[in-house]
């Protein structure tokens, strides 16, 4: 069981928006702005999509956005495209063990 | 360009050790943390720890603190991760990833922005 909770799967049609949640506690997600989101295509290394809750690295499409409310962070993908189909993972620093936690991952299917 | 190049696939016997290397290029090696993350077949991501290439200081996940060792060689811009006392469930793809800037007093976001392609470690007798 992962320390951060994500839905196992989400889906959406091309052009739609989807939101993936990442639930933690006041010791991790709710503590500071250390939430990151990663996209992983099959057989590839993860790719950083969002860091610091809502910051996009250079080169990441502005269709990807991040937010946080309390102990739950969210990744929203707008204008879904076929290429967005992948697994998505959230991560957060935790002050409880001074380590980094990952969510269990969410498989996004573009219908 | 910023790049992390990892060593090739390893096969280790139960109880033995394996070492995976990660060579950095395209940036100042000692300026950024390096994380190690693993992924068992069909499973999610699991964080093992980080190393500060400048000081050599490390921070391991509690689960791994007694059987994972991270070191660095600043002369060749390379970080190493040694996994000892191998068990079958250590079979996984091991990734290195670049983290935050090493800067005293700086706010850390604990991100991982550049990843190696991964090294497959297979534990088999």
Number of helices of chain A: 0
In terms of per-residue confidence, which ranges of chain B show pLDDT below 50 for 5 or more consecutive residues? none
Radius of gyration of chain B: 14 Å
Overall pLDDT confidence of chain A:
96
**What sort of overall outline of chain A do the alpha carbons produce when their principal axes are compared?**
globular
End-to-end gap of chain A:
28 Å
Order of helices and strands of chain A: EEEEEEEEE
- Please indicate the percent range of residues of chain A in DSSP E strands (runs of 2 or more): 35-45%
Q: Give me the secondary-structure category of chain A.
A: mainly beta
Instruction: Give the terminus-to-terminus CA distance of chain B.
Output: 40 Å
The overall pLDDT of chain B, averaged over residues, is 95
* Overall number of strands of chain A: 9
Shape of chain B: globular
Helix content of chain A: under 10%
